[in-house]
Design brief:
The complex is a heterotrimer of chains A (480), B (240) and C (424). Chain A has 480 residues and is mainly alpha-helical. In chain C, 50% of the residues are buried. The chains are: A mainly alpha (480), B alpha/beta (240), C mainly alpha (424).
């Protein structure tokens, strides 16, 4: 054990004297600190923006005058997605999806206006977030630090000296790894502090997620450290080691994530939104038009209701039958809409699963997925937001439909367009809008995030094991 | 002097603030083998680089067949065949391929017969000629490199530590080739720290120390140099 | 003759350089895969468009058969609009997945409809597109680095450099064939799959030449850059690899990302959602306004209908369509601003293209493929024009208050989008 420390110390001392190593280290720290600062201001700006927008939307909604409740069903409401506190580390899909959903009756709108479209071409080049730095740039810098860690000793013939002094092969490699690992830790620190700061209120278990995430990055970086030292031990010259490691970096970091997502898109194509909309419309055709109480689709509802209340005509029902039709219509529509929405989400998750399976070929695919999941900025978090928005929508619409049932008679409702006076009779007091609870997105909790990240997490474990084994194997072959 | 192939006059080379060559002068005639003997850092390799125009001297001049190496490097190089230390060629290519490739660089298109003749004259085993150089011993690589030098048919041959790491029989073969070339009129400049080899093959031996030629020994009538004298001076210089 | 012998020898030499060949092969395969995936994407899009047109017609015919008034018929009649892929789309899909490409438009307020994008899987979108433009922007430079970084250093470190220089008739006889052959090897590896793809898409010769030229320029820039680094006499091969890759990181990752941060910071207040919100508020407010307010505003911009009969009822379709139009007019300035902001960002992006070849090549390809912002906005214009056409088709029956009949409805002919937009 002591030899390992000595070797690590020796390596660090070598870097201290080498200009290249200093350049790399300074760049590394500069990048991580910059990424932390930029990302922090960016995310908090966006969060403030959304809070303000949500407050504005709430204010406008609540300021609506007395109205016919169905007018409010069509007037609708906006809800905004609040950012996860860990978005400062990994903003995930944040810029790829819209931040708001318009909620109205009879429809489930999608989240439109993704920031990526508005940014234009540069949106796809990555983001200056700590996650991008750690996943993409840090391995490259580690490679530049460590590619020669063993080949240098071979080229200078100092390897034989070390071995001659009784340093075991594996001690040598572990020592080199330890030194490199120390650099990785250094880069991880700003990220951790930033996350620690932004999860200060410890809501929804984000603090625990931060710990898991940091642990995940430790594993990820350890994989790279072990791979780098192994390759350096297996090859004869520094030049060979560098080109192999750079090749590895290009394939696993630059290529694989894109190949994975392209393959997932091709092998499990999702129908276009329009096509889905058309299919929804087709399915809903049988549901009838819930604005029209004479629609034959509601004949059963009418006879059943009349029978239940034991009356002859709908005018004799103790409530506004038009409201009931609206209520039942919304119920039926929502069932269809939810089913299609569910299908779409499942399809997206299937695609994600296919893309994630490429983590067997690249640890970057694994850490991307793991990091997003723990940061609460992954696909499932978006789905969670969409579901919460839909629940809120359904609840809001049905509240208004119930008001339509209870607050006016059928005769009044049917006569609403006859004159200003009759119109006024069908309006309900605006306190109904102010009484609506405002939308509050409750994030998934830590256990759910952990579960979403468990598969890629497991793959990372396998990678760690495999690279550990590779290191041991290369220790045995060191002199071959 | 019309048959002067190589001439250094007052050569001065400064690298990193240190004088590597400081006022060195000598001449090598056509058909003459001149050996520069010296220890590490005496300026042997620098001398060769200067003649090949790969290094600009800070003072003095290095001439090849009357042309300044510094001013006409391209013309000069076309007159020179060079045998680098360790005979580094392409390891992944065979002897044939190495020769053809290098000759193509000097715009020479060799025919099979001349390639064979050259490899015969350095007595490279026939069965090895089609194998990549990876599998060669040091002496065999050396032979391929010499074959290349022969095929270039240049009037000047520069040799950098040609016999280091060769076994005795390979050294013997090598000396024979050099003598044959000299008889054909090629001017040979070799730098080496192999005292015995130098005395054996060279017509003149110069002793180089700290960038200066301290002494030149000439062969007597029967073509041999008194080894003991050279050795004494050489060792004395090394010790100083 | 000797020149050709030299070239043949160098070619032979290239064939023996396994690492270089391997990388060229890799580039060829990756370029091929990107083209195949691009073709697949375009094919799927074409199929979607065909299906959309068919489903769209069926749905509209069905709805029309149920119509009992003109206003309702117009309300239910969606019309498909689509932005067909061009023969080069497969090579640079760009932001096409985030921009609207397929939509169904009806006579209601356009601002509420025009920003509907297809819903993409955000996690797949995040990884970035694997299209030919990506290969050209990211991988081509890396391959060039790999092929050239140790051009000099490998010979020096192998102890062959002096021998090579002395043996060569002149320096150009040594390096030029070697550089040229590798350079053309790289070009062919990346371009061949592109050419095949373009032939399959029967692209015009002109665009093939422009695309190839863009690749050649990109390759020349990077080769020059890498050679400038690789020929530094003091650089070991590791140093020149590290410096080259560093340059790649700066030019391909750092500058575009910094550019993104800069652009998002300097052109702010870009709120597409606000356009939709203003339009929606206007439409909603109209319900509570006196009808004459809406109608006066409408007649001001559409004087040809101002002699239409006054509205006495609480509800009238012509009033409904009038306030939709007025909503659009109210949001028009904001929509213009939104567009201008996106264009301003695009202009800034163009500046970054000067300092980042990766941005430049992507822009170039997206322009050639008509997948850039200009093309997207041009499509938006076509859709707006089409919407205008649809809207106006219903106005005569609405504002002249023609009594409803299916025969009259059937006479309202609305051209196909392909006709309106002049597609083939």
């Amino acid at each position: 054990m002591k030899t390992i420390y000595l070797i690590a110390f020796d390596e660090l001392r070598y870097w201290r004297r080498s200009k290249t190593a200093w350049t790399v280290l300074v760049t590394l720290l500069l990048i991580s600190v910059c990424a932390a600062v930029v990302s922090n201001s960016e995310v908090s700006r966006r969060a403030d923006e959304r809070l303000a927008q949500q407050a504005e939307a709430d204010a406008i909604f609540q300021a609506q005058p007395d109205r016919h409740p169905h007018r409010m069903v069509h007037y609708g409401h906006y809800v905004y997605r609040t950012a996860s506190p860990l978005a400062v580390i990994d903003s995930g899909i944040d810029s790829m999806v819209g931040t708001s959903v318009f909620l109205e009756g009879h429809r489930q709108n999608s989240a439109t206006f993704a920031a990526a479209r508005e940014t234009g071409l540069l949106a796809r080049f990555g983001s200056f977030s700590p996650a991008f730095t750690l996943q993409t740039l840090l391995p490259l810098l580690l490679i530049l630090c460590g590619f020669a860690s063993v080949t240098r000793e071979k080229e200078n013939k100092t390897l034989y000296q070390l071995v001659g002094q009784g340093v075991g092969n594996s001690s040598l490699l572990f020592g080199k790894s330890l030194a490199l690992w120390f650099v990785a830790l250094l880069a991880l620190l700003p990220l951790f502090l930033l996350g620690f700061d932004s999860t200060a209120n410890e809501e929804f278990g984000f603090r625990s997620s931060l710990y898991s995430m940091t642990f995940g990055y430790l594993i990820y970086l350890s994989i790279w450290v072990l791979l780098i030292v192994s390759v350096s031990a297996l090859l004869r010259t520094s030049a060979q080691s560098l080109s192999v490691l750079l090749g590895l970096w290009i394939i696993t970091v630059v290529l694989m994530p894109r190949i994975a997502s392209a393959y997932a898109g091709v092998s499990a194509p999702s129908p276009s939104q329009i096509e889905t909309n058309l299919r929804v419309a087709e399915t809903m055709r049988s549901g009838g038009d819930s604005h029209d109480i004479e629609d034959t689709a509601f004949a059963d509802l009418r006879s059943l209701t009349l029978a239940e209340y034991d009356v002859e005509k709908i005018e004799d029902l103790p409530f506004n039958y038009r409201g009931l039709v609206a209520f039942r219509g919304e119920e039926a529509d929502t069932e269809v809409l939810t089913q299609f929405a569910q299908e779409r989400m499942e399809q997206e998750l299937r695609q994600k699963q296919i893309a994630d399976s490429f983590s067997v070929l690249s640890p970057v695919v694994a850490i991307r997925s793991f990091s997003m999941a723990l940061a609460g900025t992954a696909l499932q978090d978006h789905h969670h937001f969409l579901r919460a928005a839909e629940d809120y929508r359904y609840n809001m619409v049905q509240t208004f439909n119930r008001l339509q049932m209870a607050e006016m008679t059928l005769a009044e409702d049917l006569a609403r367009n006859d004159s200003d006076e009759s119109g006024r009779r069908t309006r309900v007091d605006s306190s109904a809008w102010t009484d609506m609870p405002v939308f509050e997105l409750r994030s998934l909790d830590h256990a759910q995030r952990w579960q979403a990240g468990s598969n890629p997490g497991l793959t990372m474990g396998l990678w760690l094991f495999a690279s550990f084994v590779l290191l041991l194997l290369s220790a045995r072959r060191l002199h071959a | 002097m019309s048959n002067c192939a190589l001439r250094a006059s007052d050569l001065e080379v400064i690298r990193g603030g240190n004088a590597v060559l400081s006022g060195m002068s000598f001449e090598v005639k056509q058909g003459e083998v001149f050996a520069l003997l010296g220890g590490n850092g005496a300026g042997k390799s620098t001398t060769l680089l200067t003649f090949m125009g790969l290094l600009q001297p800070n003072g003095g001049i290095a001439e090849v067949l009357g042309q300044s190496a510094a001013k006409e490097p391209v013309a000069v190089r076309n007159q020179i065949a060079y045998l680098p230390e360790n005979a580094a060629l392409y390891d992944h290519l065979t002897a044939w391929e190495n020769l053809t490739y290098f000759l193509s660089l000097s715009q020479v298109r060799p025919d099979q017969a001349s390639l064979s003749a050259a490899l015969d004259s350095v007595s490279l085993p026939i069965q090895s000629r089609g194998k990549p150089l990876k599998s060669y011993s040091k002496g065999m690589r050396q032979k391929v490199a010499i074959a290349l030098a022969l095929l270039r048919e240049t009037p000047v041959l520069l040799l950098d530590e040609p016999t280091s790491g060769l076994d005795p029989s390979a050294v013997e073969d090598f000396h024979n080739i050099i003598e044959r070339l000299a008889k054909q009129g090629v001017a040979v400049l070799m730098v080496t720290h192999d005292l015995y080899g130098a005395c054996h093959v060279a017509h003149r031996v110069g002793i180089l120390r700290a960038g200066q030629l301290v002494e030149v020994f000439e062969a007597d009538e029967d073509g041999s140099i008194e080894i003991a004298t050279v050795r004494d001076l050489f060792l004395q210089q090394q010790a100083a | 003759m000797n020149q050709s012998f030299r070239m043949r020898q160098e070619f032979h030499f290239l064939l023996k350089s396994k690492a270089v060949l391997g990388v060229l092969l890799l580039l060829f395969v990756i370029s091929g895969v990107s083209v195949a995936l691009g073709l697949n994407y375009v094919e799927a899009e074409r199929q979607q468009i065909t299906e959309l047109i068919q489903l769209d017609t069926e749905e509209r015919t069905h709805k029309r058969s149920l119509a009992y008034d003109y206003g309702g018929a117009a309300y239910d009649a969606f019309h498909a609009a689509w932005n067909p892929p061009t023969p080069l789309t497969f090579a640079a899909i760009g932001q096409r997945d985030l921009n609207p490409t397929l939509m169904r438009i009806r006579a209601l307020a356009i601002e509420g409809q025009i920003y509907e994008t297809d819903s993409v899987n955000p996690e797949l979108a995040l990884a970035g597109r694997f299209d030919f433009a990506f290969v050209a922007a990211y991988l081509l430079p890396l391959v060039i680095i790999f092929v050239f970084y140790d051009l000099l250093a490998s010979e020096r470190e192998g102890g062959r450099l002096n021998l090579l220089v002395v043996t060569a008739e002149r320096a150009s006889a040594l390096w030029l064939p070697r550089i040229l052959l590798r350079f053309f090897g790289i070009l062919i590896s990346i371009l061949f799959p592109l050419w095949v793809g373009m032939l399959m898409e029967s692209a015009a010769v002109g665009s093939m030449l422009s695309a190839s030229f863009a690749i050649v320029v990109q390759a020349v820039i990077w080769t020059a850059l890498v050679l400038a680094i690789a020929t530094r006499p003091t650089f070991r091969s590791e140093t020149s690899a590290a410096v080259s890759v560093g340059a790649w990181v700066v030019l391909t990752l750092a500058i575009p990302i910094a550019g993104k941060v800069y652009i998002e910071g300097s052109v702010t207040g870009i709120k597409g959602a606000e356009v939709a919100l203003v339009q929606r508020e206007a439409v909603n407010d109209a319900w509570d306004l006196p009808k004459s307010t809406t109608m006066d505003a409408f007649y001001a911009s559409h004087p040809e209908w101002s002699d239409s009969a006054p509205i006495n009822e609480e509800w009238h379709w012509k009033w409904y369509y009038a306030f939709q139009q007025v909503g659009d007019e109210l949001a028009a300035d904001l929509a213009q601003e939104y567009r201008a902001a996106m264009l301003a960002r695009d202009q800034l992006t163009a500046r970054f293209a000067f300092i980042s070849p990766a941005v430049a090549i992507q822009r170039q390809f997206e322009a050639l493929a008509h997948t850039n912002l200009d093309a997207s906005l041009a499509f938006e214009d076509q859709v707006r024009e089409y919407h205008e056409h649809i809207r106006r088709a219903y106005y005569p029956v609405l504002f002249r208050e023609v009594p409803f009949s299916s025969e009259r409805l059937a006479q309202i002919e609305i051209a196909d989008f392909s006709e309106s937009a002049g597609l083939d």
